[in-house]
Amino acid sequence: MELVRLTVAGSQAEAEMICALLETGGIHALQRQTDMAAGAGDGFPSGGTREVLVAAGELESARDVLAGEPESS
Questions:
Q1: Helical ranges in the chain per DSSP H
Q2: What is the pLDDT of residues 12-56, one digit of tens each?
Q3: Quick one: pLDDT at residue 2?
């Protein structure tokens, strides 16, 4: 399964909220620390921006969930 970036959240808490919202729409999502500030924490997680990832085949549906648009049947 290919994972693609849906969005970048400003914090871990924000990323967790986005993932929870996607889960309510039936879309499995993962979040991970970005490499935007590589080296800033000397290899230790230091918070910061997080990527929210979804399966490539669910990208459009995930965008609709975040936009608040109803699913089309």
A1: 12-24, 59-67
A2: 999 999 999 999 999 999 999 887 655 555 555 556 899 999 999
A3: 96
Instruction: Name 63's Cβ contacts closer than 8 Å, sequence gap at least 6.
Output: 6
In 3D space, the residue among 29, 33, 9, 11 whose CA is nearest the CA of residue 21 turns out to be 29
Please, are residues 53 and 5 in contact by the beta-carbon 8 Å criterion?
yes
pLDDT value for 34: 86
What is the end-to-end Cα distance of the chain in Å, rounded?
24
Contacts with 46 (C-beta within 8 Å, 6 or more apart), sequence order: 37, 40
Which residue segments constitute the domains of the chain, with CATH numbers given? 3-38+47-67 (3.30.70)
The neighbouring-strand residues paired with 55 are 3
